[in-house]
Amino acid sequence: NAGVMQNPRHLVRRRGQEARLRCSPMKGHSHVYWYRQLPEEGLKFMVYLQKENIIDESGMPKERFSAEFPKEGPSILRIQQVVRGDSAAYFCASGPRGDYEQYFGPGTRLTVT
Amino acid sequence: QKEVEQDPGPLSVPEGAIVSLNCTYSNSAFQYFMWYRQYSRKGPELLMYTYSSGNKEDGRFTAQVDKSSKYISLFIRDSQPSDSATYLCAIDYSGAGSYQLTFGKGTKLSVIP
After folding, report:
1. For tag attachment on chain A, is the N or C end more exposed, with fewer CB atoms within 10 Å?
2. Are A3 and A102 in contact (CB under 8 A)?
3. Three-state SS for A46?
4. CA distance B2 to B26
């Protein structure tokens, strides 16, 4: 029974490059959430998606960040033109319903040099 | 203001001790409370959730909620070195089983053999 899968686990990008983070939810889960964990900070909600729909992106920065969850394949969090302040751990969670029951993946640690 | 306050520690206890981890919150308009455990460089793992005042027990773990004081606690009995991790409280502020969790910054626990 595989849990939430994220890849890559570690990603290094130079300033100005694009970062693509992928998330495969647990089997049977159709609700996906992305959170960001900055150093010395708590997890912050970014976006909630269902298949082919963005339900709530109120936590996403207005520029450079986008997310999708296509009909087939993993959910993708895309960060364009990365800056040093984007360096963080990005966690994906999935759940059986759109509520508080969320199971997290191992995270992708993004380092911007 | 949606906030969750959590003492970051670190907290160091001898093996076998009873551990008390706590969070306070500011907004009374919610129902669901979660505790996550996060090992170093890993994703948060859902330990327990509860939606009412009082205690909920699961093995060596007891979650306690006091809505009148806006205070939640996690007790760990007979602590083990494998319990060494960062413990995060999370609260659903919507009061309707929503998905936007607000996390504390976490308390780092070390259980010394």
Report:
1. N
2. no
3. strand
4. 7
- Mean pLDDT, rounded, for A43-55: 92
Largest CA distance in chain A: 38
List the one residue out of A42, A22, A37, A48 whose CA is nearest residue A102: A48
- Given a contact cutoff of 8 angstroms between Cβ atoms, the answer to whether A95 and A104 are in contact is no
In DSSP notation, B32-69 reads: EEEEEEE-TTS--EEEEEE-SSEEEEETTEEEEEETTT
**pLDDT at residue B53, as a whole number:** 81
Contacts of A94 in chain B (CB under 8 A): none
Residues 6 or more apart whose CB falls under 8 angstroms from that of A61 comprise none
Contact list, A40 vs chain B (CB under 8 Å): 105
Q: Is A56 on the interface with B (CB under 8 A)?
A: yes
